[in-house]
Each structure stands twice: as C-alpha cells, then as structure tokens.
Amino acid sequence: HAIKAQSISDGRHYMLGRIAGLPPSTKPDLGVVDRWRCVQNPGIAHVHEAFVTRAFGDSSLVVVRDYKPLAASLASRLLERPAPATEAFLWSVVLQLASALHAVHAAGLAACVLGPSTVWITPAGRVYIACGGLLDLLSPGRSESLAAAQQRDLRAIGQIVSALLCAGAEGAAVARGQPPLPLAATVGPGFSPSLRELAVYLSDQRAHTVGVDGIVRLAGARALVELGAVRREADLVLDGLRVEMANGRLARLLCKLGFVAEGADSSGGPGWSETGDCYLAALFRDYVFRSVDEDGVLATDMAHVIGNLNKLDAGSSEKVMLVSRDDKSCLVVSYSEVKRSIDSAYSELLAAAQAAARAWR
C-alpha cells in the first residue's frame, strides 16, 4: 500500500510504502536504511527511514520515501494505455532505469524486485525505482550473491520494456501480476535494429554479463536525446523558479506596503505625520491601486500595478508624482525614496511589536 503523508517536523510530503501483516518471526534489518539513504539519483524514490508499527491494527513495515506527484506504478498505467509505447519512450525508460541502477550498484546494493508494480511512471514520462531497500529489509540473510542480484536488476529492464509493449487485455494481465513475455519475443520488425539488439542483449541468459555500459552503447545517440530532454526540462524549471522568486519578492513588498499604509490610515503609528514614512507609503499605495482614468473610473490595469511594484522593488531613481485623495497634497519623489520610507516605517512597526510582546511576557 502507498500512502501520501505530511511530516510534522519539516512540513514536506512523503510516500509511505506499507508492507502489511509481517509474521512475528520476521525481523526487518532497519539498519540497511542507512546504506540506501546514501544513494542519490533522480531516478530513485529516495529512502529516508523505515519502521515497524501497529498503528494499522497489525504488524506493518513502513518505508518512507520521496513523494513524486502524479506518479503511479507501471502496473496501474498499463490498465490506462490503449496502445503500446513508442520506441522513443521505450529508450527513455531504458536509459532512466540504467542510470538509476548504475547509482544503486555503485553503492554496493541491488534493487532486487524490479517490475511493473515497483517502478513508478509520471504522465510526463519520468521513471522512478520505488523498491530500493525493500528486499534488504525483509530478507537480510538471503543467500543470493550481490553480483547475481545486480544482474537480475539489469535484466529486469527487459521485462519492464516488454510490459510497456503490452496493450489491451495483455496489458491488463501484466497489471494483475502475470509476467510479460520476454523482450525478444515482443520487439517486432517495426522497431529499430538497435532495440531488437537490446532485446537479445537483455534476454540471453547464457552468453554474457549484462552491464550499464552495454545498454548505453546500444542506445547510442539516443542517450544524447535523453540528455537534451533533461536539459530542456531543467531550463523550464529554472525559468519557472525565477518567475516565482519575482512573485515572492513582490508578495513580501505588498505585505510591507499594506502594514505601513494601514498605519497611516489609522493615524496611530509612532511618529506618524503627513510628511512621514507611513503617509508616503499610503500615497504610493493609492497611486498604485486607486488610479482612475479620464472618466474617473477606477483603472484595474495589472501592468500598471506590476510595473510600479517592480520599480519600487528595484529602488529605481525614476520620479513619480503622488497626490492625496483630497488633492491638497502633492509630492514628487523617486521610487528609491518610497522604498526607503517603507523599509524604515516597517522596521519601526516590527520594533514596536517586539517591544509589546516582551512587555506581555
């Protein structure tokens, strides 16, 4: 079972993977989490901790992993897909899994239980291994060698790709737990020779040892396509982050302006006067949000608001004329002067609030 949860310590969301009904004889090796916690790769749902609990009415093992929004198991995605995956998508999955397994194997570990139910896929095609450490926790004394387990990991990529090639009733059967056909039997003549060669490479149990370098060699220039897609996604994220950072600055500026201007409206701030910092902030607030057009109608121009707030945030030396509501006061000041006034008045308000809080203690 997978449960979305929010931590009370850091406020972040995590995924709780629950293994229900542990037999009394099963003693999970919780210390293995320390080794898995060190494995860092974007294709792995990072393991944070594991614990045994009776909060669900039985003895359950809970593994805490990173929460991946909109991600679902490959098995559940198979029920939604009317047609087999395209070759470009198959190579993307292969390269993402190979990258993740390379990090796992370099740490001296093995995923061990890769399959349609333990690999997550997002609608955007991001793939995550969500079974890291599970078998190590449940079967600490297993006899399989690390080398054999790592080979099984790499060959499981072929089973996962074969599952993605299933559709309709066959895909539903795989989703219910039926093993997919060997990859070599599902890659037809409509695919490229390199994908068919990959199918043979991952399926042949006798001829050779499978390695990540061999998978990358067969992928060839497709690895560069995947790298380019990752860079494009990173650029989009950074662009969005820059926008949100700008929005955050304007939000903080609006909060300051609101606190200070309210002090002017109530005429109760310390040192308040019609030429003081609070009054200047109130005039600027009216200039930004109470401007009217030639017909006297309130102008709801977002460009006017955002442009003036950006100039204020930057402390521009450009001059602006501020007029009181009764038209009796008119000030020509720079945005930098308004910004200094707002910062000064806000600092006074903070100092007064802190002093009042100390007096109440």
Question: Could you give the topology of this structure?
Answer:
Blueprint: E1 2-6, E2 13-19, H1 33-37, E3 47-53, E4 60-66, E5 72-73, H2 74-78, H3 87-106, E6 119-121, E7 127-129, H4 134-138, H5 146-164, H6 168-175, H7 183-186, H8 193-203, H9 212-219, H10 222-266, H11 277-289, H12 302-314, E8 319-323, E9 330-334, H13 335-360
Antiparallel strand pairs: 1-2, 2-4, 3-4, 5-6, 6-7, 8-9
Helix pairs in contact: 3-5, 3-9, 5-8, 8-9, 10-11, 10-12, 10-13, 11-13, 12-13
In short:
This is PAB-dependent poly(A)-specific ribonuclease subunit 3. With 361 residues, the chain is of the alpha+beta class.
Write up this protein.
The protein is α+β, with helices and mostly antiparallel strands and 361 residues long. It contains 13 helices and nine strands. The protein has helices at residues 33-37, 74-78, 87-106, 134-138, 146-164, 168-175, 183-186, 193-203, 212-219, 222-266, 277-289, 302-314, 335-360; strands at residues 2-6, 13-19, 47-53, 60-66, 72-73, 119-121, 127-129, 319-323, 330-334. Helix 10 (222-266) packs across helix 11 and helix 11 (277-289) packs across helix 13 (335-360). The chain is elongated and about 90 Å long. Mean pLDDT is 85; it is low at 268-272.
Number of DSSP strand runs: 9
User: What is the first-to-last residue Cα distance?
Assistant: 48 Å
Which residue ranges are poorly predicted, with pLDDT under 50 across at least 5 consecutive positions? Answer: 268-272
The strands making up the biggest β-sheet line up spatially as 1-2-4-3
Compute the CA-based radius of gyration.
30 Å
Q: What share of residues are in beta strands?
A: 5-15%
Quickly give the structural class: alpha+beta
Specify the overall morphology: elongated
H-E string: EEHEEEHHEEHHHHHHHHHEEH
What average pLDDT do the residues reach?
Answer: 85
Helix content: 40-55%
* Count of helix runs: 13
Major sheet characteristics: 4 strands, antiparallel
Protein name: PAB-dependent poly(A)-specific ribonuclease subunit 3
Organism: Coemansia helicoidea
